[in-house]
Write a structure and sequence with these properties.
By secondary structure, the chain is mainly beta. The protein has one domain (about 5-355): AttH-like domain (AttH-like fold), CATH 2.40.370. Helix content is about 5%, strand content about 50%. It has one helix at about 5-20; strands at about 50-60, 65-75, 90-100, 105-115, 120-125, 130, 135-140, 145-150, 155-160, 165, 175, 185-200, 205-220, 225-235, 240-250, 260-265, 270-275, 280, 285, 295, 300-305, 310-315, 320, 330-340, 345-355. The longest helix has 15 residues, at about 5-20.
Length: about 375
C-alpha cells in the first residue's frame, strides 16, 4: 500500500494531449474473485491502471556497518489504445532508489521518470525482468536479483524468499475506503534472505540481511477524503512479521478500513482489521529542512489479541524523499522492540509516512 501513484496521476494529465484520455472505464478495478497464480502474478497486470513492485530491506556488512535500502518500480496506465509505435505512451514508468547509511547518518536517494519507448522501461515476464533504465529487478525461480546505480551509491543484491507469498487484505483484496473500487490486489513476500554488495562514495561493502517485497495493482483505490497514510513492515527475530497501516482523512480522523496482517514463523498469515490494533505516533517529530513537513519518528503499536506491544524508532531521522515531481514522503529503516509473553524480541523493518508535506507540483522532464 503506497502513495507514489499520486505523483504518476499528476504526470498523466500532462500527457493527455498526445495520448488521449485515460478513462477509468478502460481499466479493471480490484474486487473479490481474483485468483492469484504464481509466478505469473509477480509480473505485469496491464488491465489495471496502477501497479508497483516495492523492495525494501535492512542489511549489514561483516564489520557491523548497517544500511537500509529501497528500490521501487511504478507503472501508471495512460491509454490502452491499440498503437504499436514504441513512442506512444501507454504507460508512464517511475522508479525510486534510496540508501540509508545508518552508521554514517546519511540518506541518499534518486528518482527516474520514463515512458516505455524502445526498451527504456517495462516488464518482461519471459526474461523475468522489471526495469527502468539500468535499474532492474530480475525475478527468477526461487530467487530475485536487484541492481541499481546512483551518482554516489549503488546496490547489487540477491534475494531468496523464505516464505510463500502472503495475500494481504481479504483474500488479496486490500480495501482502502468504503465502496466498490476503493481497493487494490495486494500480496507480499515478507522475508527474503539477502546477500550482495553496497557501493557508497567509492567504497564497497559486502552485506547480508533480510528484505521485504510488496506488489499491488489497482485502478483508483483511495477516496477523496483520504490525505495520506502511515505504513510499516516489521520482521522480528523469532521469524514472524507484521504489516500495518492507518489511513488518515483530511480532517485528521482515521479511516475504518485501516488494517494489516500478522505472519507466523511457518508463513501462515492472519488478517488484522482496524479494531484489532492501535498504531499511535509519539510526540517526537523530525522536521524536514526541504519540505518543512514534521514527521513522527517514534511509534507505539498494540495488538492485544496477539499479546504484542511494540516500540518503533528511526535510527536515522532524515529519510525523506523530497520528490522532484509529485508528493514528497518519508520512508526509511526502523528498529523495533516487541514485548510478548514476558519476553522481548528485537526486529527491523521499514516505515512510510505520506501526506505530511504539502502536495508537490510535477516537474516534467524535457
Amino acid at each position: 500500500m503506497r502513495n507514489k501513484w499520486l505523483a504518476l496521476l499528476l504526470l498523466t494529465t500532462a500527457c493527455l494531449s498526445t495520448t488521449g484520455p485515460a478513462t477509468g472505464q478502460e481499466y479493471k478495478i480490484a474486487q473479490p474473485g481474483y485468483t492469484f497464480e504464481f509466478p505469473r502474478d509477480y509480473f505485469n497486470h496491464e488491465a489495471y491502471q496502477t501497479e508497483w513492485w516495492y523492495y525494501t530491506g535492512n542489511v549489514k556488512s561483516p564489520d557491523g556497518h548497517r544500511f537500509g535500502f529501497e528500490l521501487t518500480f511504478f507503472r501508471q496506465g495512460v491509454s490502452r489504445a491499440a498503437n504499436s509505435s514504441p513512442w506512444f505512451v501507454h504507460d508512464i514508468w517511475m522508479a525510486h532508489l534510496a540508501l540509508s547509511d545508518i552508521n554514517g547518518q546519511r540518506f541518499y536517494n534518486e528518482e527516474r521518470l520514463n515512458r516505455s519507448g524502445p526498451g527504456i522501461a517495462g516488464v518482461d515476464e519471459h526474461t523475468g525482468r522489471v526495469w527502468n533504465g539500468n535499474w532492474q529487478a530480475h525475478i527468477g525461480d526461487g530467487e530475485e536479483e536487484l541492481h541499481g546505480v546512483g551518482d554516489k551509491f549503488g546496490l547489487a543484491l540477491r534475494l531468496t524468499p523464505l516464505k510463500r507469498p502472503v495475500l494481504q487484505g481479504q483474500n488479496g483484496v486490500s480495501q482502502k475506503a468504503e465502496g466498490v473500487g476503493h481497493a487494490s490486489h495486494y500480496f507480499s513476500l515478507t522475508r527474503l534472505a539477502t546477500t550482495g554488495s553496497i557501493e557508497l562514495e567509492g567504497k564497497s561493502y559486502t552485506v547480508e540481511g533480510t528484505s521485504w517485497i510488496d506488489h499491488e495493482f489497482f485502478t483508483g483505490s483511495l477516496a477523496a477524503n483520504e490525505r495520506g497514510w502511515d505504513w510499516l513492515s516489521i520482521q522480528l527475530e523469532d521469524g514472524t512479521e507484521l504489516m500495518l497501516y492507518r489511513l488518515r482523512h483530511t480532517d485528521g480522523s482515521i479511516d475504518p478500513y485501516t488494517s494489516g496482517s500478522y505472519v507466523d514463523s511457518s508463513g501462515k498469515s492472519q488478517f488484522l482489521p482496524a479494531k484489532d490494533f492501535t498504531l499511535t505516533p509519539a510526540t517526537d517529530r523530525w522536521t524536514s529542512p526541504t519540505t518543512k513537513a514534521a514527521y513522527p519518528i517514534r511509534w507505539h503499536l498494540s495488538i492485544p489479541g496477539l499479546k504484542m506491544q511494540l516500540e518503533v524508532t528511526a535510527p536515522l531521522k532524515s529519510q525523506e524523499l523530497a520528490a522532484s515531481f509529485g508528493p514528497s514522503y518519508w520512508e526509511g529503516a526502523i528498529d523495533v522492540s516487541c514485548a510478548r509473553n514476558g519476553s522481548t524480541l528485537n526486529g527491523v523493518g521499514y516505515l512510510e509516512m505520506t501526506g505530511y508535506a504539502e502536495p508537490g507540483k510535477p516537474l516534467i522532464p524535457k
